[in-house]
Amino acid sequence: MRFDTTPNLHYGDMDYVQNWDRMIPEFREQIILSESAGFTTYWLPEHHFGAIDGWNNSTPNPVLMCMDLAAHTKTIRVGTGGVAVPDWNPLRLAEDLAVLDIASGGRFDCGVMKGASKRTNKQLFHQHDDAGATQRIFAEVLDILVQAWKDEPFSHKGEFYQFPVPGFKETNELLNGDSRYYAPDGEYIAMTVHPKPLQKPHPPMYMLGDSVASHEFAAGRGMPVMCYTPSDSSIETSWRAYREAYRQSQGVELAPGENLSIMKPVYVASTMERAKADIRPGINLLFGRSALAISRTKYIDAGAPLTTQDEDDDWFDFLHRHNILLVGTPASVSEQIAMHQERFGCQHLALFSNTPGLTHQQLMDNFTLFGEQVIPQFQD
Q1: 264 with 214, same domain?
Q2: Are 229 and 282 within one domain?
Q3: 111 has which bridge partners?
Q4: Whole-number Cα distances in Å, 1 to 6, 94, 143, 267
């Protein structure tokens, strides 16, 4: 079974927001320990404008951060978890990701997402009010990335982008002689980006999404999916839809769990009491004040009513009882992971490690214990 992890971004902690010179060395220590502990990929999200209240305190440029972390490691993969592709210029993104792939020695996993914030989408790049535009931009940029990473010249004309931009003519006759790229009058008609990724045909691309629609979209492109904190019934529904969409679009019958992964809050300690005491306040804070708190019904089986206990429990007890959290001793968490294997065919789990209030040392202890006592239980 494959295990990945994520950094401690100290959500909500303004001291860290104002002192990223502390955050980056901690990232390096965490990924070096994750490498020795046996994790496969260390995923870094993209968020912006965290200085307001600290809750988006993650790197605004995961590509740059992955480059740094790859330089401090030898075998572990680095991943954008994910890069908000509508907020980037497609050609610049294709170039930057290719450079990262080469510099990391092909240790790059390209996680992509539509974007975590409409506020960010609008401020950074697109001045539109069409509610569906971000999804269409997302799909178009993915098309451009795949085209740009091919060896042959390409051109693109879509709803939002046209490359090469029409009307440009190269007047330097020393440059415009290649008929693959230039018309006889020097107009730029096809292009390429440089360099190309090391991994062929391109780095593994993961869709970060929770909905059935996201799973079906990814399946139509042959992309794996990583979902976050899903209920048991939503895993079954989305993964069944993914397999069917993949069969129809790719002509391949996947095994249960193939191409699919789950990211969940995971925390292990020497005793159940210690694990709960360490993480309970942060889980209550995270789920109680964020978009994750929209409705508790998201985290129970579809169509099931909330019980009195569901409504009265704090967030931690509610989520822990419904298998959203994997928290406890190495033995108890291993049992929960084995259940995910048996019920869903899950073979790929990513640890969400960004619970507010957890210290750097607590996370390091969690990684160490997980690597020593959990990962070996699932090695072939």
Answers
A1: yes
A2: yes
A3: 206
A4: 17, 31, 31, 18
Sequence-ordered strand ranges (E) for the chain: 2-5, 41-44, 77-84, 108-113, 156-157, 162-163, 205-208, 225-228, 260-268, 326-328, 348-352
308 and 349 in one domain?
A: yes
pLDDT tens-place values along the chain, 380 residues long: 999 999 999 988 888 888 999 999 999 999 999 999 999 999 999 988 777 777 778 899 999 999 999 999 999 999 999 999 988 999 999 999 999 999 999 999 999 998 756 666 666 666 566 768 888 999 999 999 999 999 999 999 999 999 999 999 988 888 888 999 999 999 999 999 999 999 999 999 999 999 999 999 999 999 999 999 889 999 999 999 999 999 999 999 999 999 999 999 999 999 999 999 999 999 999 998 765 556 888 899 888 899 999 999 999 999 999 999 999 999 999 999 999 999 999 999 999 999 999 999 999 999 999 999 999 999 97
- Are 333 and 265 in a shared domain? yes
Residues 169 and 227 in one domain: no
The one-letter amino acid code at 140 reads E
Domain that includes residue 170, residue range? 154-191
Q: How many domains does the chain have?
A: 2
